[in-house]
Design brief:
With about 50 residues, the chain is an all-alpha fold. The chain contains one helix and no strands. It has one domain (about 5-45). The model has no long low-confidence stretch (mean pLDDT about 90). The radius of gyration is 21 Å and the shape is rod-shaped.
Length: about 50
């Protein structure tokens, strides 16, 4: 159920949209950084063990 936001509807909804986009970007960035760190760690451990 959507509350009546009156004349501020555009501002509030755009703030929600920007917040959601930023959260998605942060999650994506974290996943990419974790994968990169995992590859580098595997590479270092491979040299040490192999």
């Amino acid at each position: 159920m959507m509350p009546d936001l009156g004349k501020y509807a555009d501002t509030v909804l755009s703030a929600y949209a920007v917040s959601i986009l930023l959260l998605i970007a942060l999650v994506w960035w974290s996943i990419v950084a974790a994968r990169k760190a995992r590859r580098e760690l595997d590479k270092v451990e491979g040299h040490r063990n192999g």
